[in-house]
């Protein structure tokens, strides 16, 4: 460390006479070094800034960055250290004495890079008058689109511009990572466009044609059930008619060939059993048909949509048993 400090001091002393400054940068730098070693960081920072203003040396900027780093102002320290590394590398290409400064800055950047995050702010639809803020602090225009060192935390990024609606985003900055946020500045909607998107109607005005109907139009859920019940009723009636006709055929056969339904001839037992099954189907068909048609009439008459139709939910239950059939509707209002 001491050889590096000595080299930096000598380099700054060499700048004094050649540039003809009123203050000696080497002397000011040495004063700053003593304050820095004594832990008086604020006073040392002022001396290093003064040296930097006089000499423009990367060596002075290196200690500006170190003061800021020791004071916990890591984002500022990172920016100064990054600039130190860049300027020292440029000078080291022709003057080897800046190589130590370049390497020291690069080493510190690697350490601080794991302690801070970086935020890239980009604007869409921006204008020359756009203003960008991070947590209420203005961001210089030359920092837009490039990584900005940020302490790890959630930050609010806001952009404003004349004639544009403000854009704002909250982003989480993570240590060691780079986050990009895009803010889009667009013209605010005109009052006429806002009014067109949200039309109002007087409470006394009647609803427009078709307004207030359910998804099924004029047929509420109960009328839909009524239509279904009617279809089942018709199907039941048709089934009863067909099965009844078949029963009549079986009965006619028994009367013609075996003396009626009380035939004792075992060879006609299948005909008798078949006739009984068909008779059961006929009875069920008549019951289902009757219940279905009766339910359909009632539901179609009284099942129209009400004012609360949109909040009605329900389910239809259909069934057929040995004794007949049924149609049911269970609802929650």
Tags for this entry?
4-stranded antiparallel sheet; 3 domains; disordered C terminus; Serine Threonine Protein Phosphatase 5, Tetratricopeptide repeat; 9 helices; rod-shaped; Immunoglobulin-like; 3-stranded mixed sheet; 333 residues; alpha+beta
Overview of the structural elements:
It is a single chain. It is built from 9 helices and 9 strands. α2 packs antiparallel against α3 (41-55) and α8 runs antiparallel to α9 (269-302). With 333 residues, the chain is of the alpha+beta class. The chain folds into 3 domains: 2-113, Tetratricopeptide repeat domain (Serine Threonine Protein Phosphatase 5, Tetratricopeptide repeat), CATH 1.25.40.10; 117-184, Immunoglobulin-like (Sandwich), CATH 2.60.40.1120; 221-332. β8 and β9 form a beta hairpin. It has helices spanning 2-19, 25-37, 41-55, 58-70, 74-92, 99-113, 191-197, 221-258, 269-302, and strands at residues 117-124, 131-134, 137-138, 148-150, 153-160, 167-173, 178-184, 313-321, 324-332.
């Amino acid at each position: 460390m001491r050889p590096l400090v000595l080299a930096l001091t000598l380099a700054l002393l060499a700048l004094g006479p050649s540039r003809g400054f009123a203050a000696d940068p080497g002397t000011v730098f040495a004063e700053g070094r003593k304050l820095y070693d004594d832990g008086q960081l604020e006073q040392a920072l002022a001396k290093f800034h003064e040296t930097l203003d006089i000499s423009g040396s990367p060596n002075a900027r290196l200690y500006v960055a170190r003061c800021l780093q020791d004071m916990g102002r890591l984002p500022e320290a990172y920016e100064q250290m990054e600039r130190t590394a860049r300027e020292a590398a440029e000078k080291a290409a022709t003057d080897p004495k800046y190589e130590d400064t370049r390497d020291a800055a690069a080493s510190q950047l690697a350490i601080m890079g794991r302690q801070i995050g970086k935020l890239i702010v980009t604007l869409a639809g921006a204008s020359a008058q756009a203003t960008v803020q991070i947590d209420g602090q203005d961001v210089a225009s030359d920092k837009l689109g490039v990584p900005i060192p940020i302490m790890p935390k959630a930050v609010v990024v806001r952009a404003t511009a004349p004639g544009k609606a403000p854009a704002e985003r909250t982003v989480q900055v993570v240590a060691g990572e780079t986050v990009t946020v895009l803010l889009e500045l667009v013209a605010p909607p005109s009052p006429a466009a806002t009014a067109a998107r949200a039309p109002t109607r007087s409470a006394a005005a009647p609803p427009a044609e078709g307004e207030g109907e359910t998804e099924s139009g004029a047929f509420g859920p109960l009328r839909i059930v009524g239509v279904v019940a009617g279809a089942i009723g018709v199907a039941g009636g048709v089934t009863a008619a067909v099965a009844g006709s078949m029963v009549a055929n079986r009965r006619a056969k028994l009367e013609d060939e075996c003396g009626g339904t009380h035939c004792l001839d075992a060879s006609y037992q299948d005909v008798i059993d078949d006739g009984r099954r068909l008779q059961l189907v006929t009875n069920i068909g008549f019951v289902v048909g009757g219940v279905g048609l009766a339910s359909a009439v009632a539901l179609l008459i009284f099942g129209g949509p009400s004012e609360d139709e949109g909040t009605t939910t329900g389910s239809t239950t259909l069934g057929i048993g040995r004794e007949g059939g049924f149609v049911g509707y269970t609802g929650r209002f």
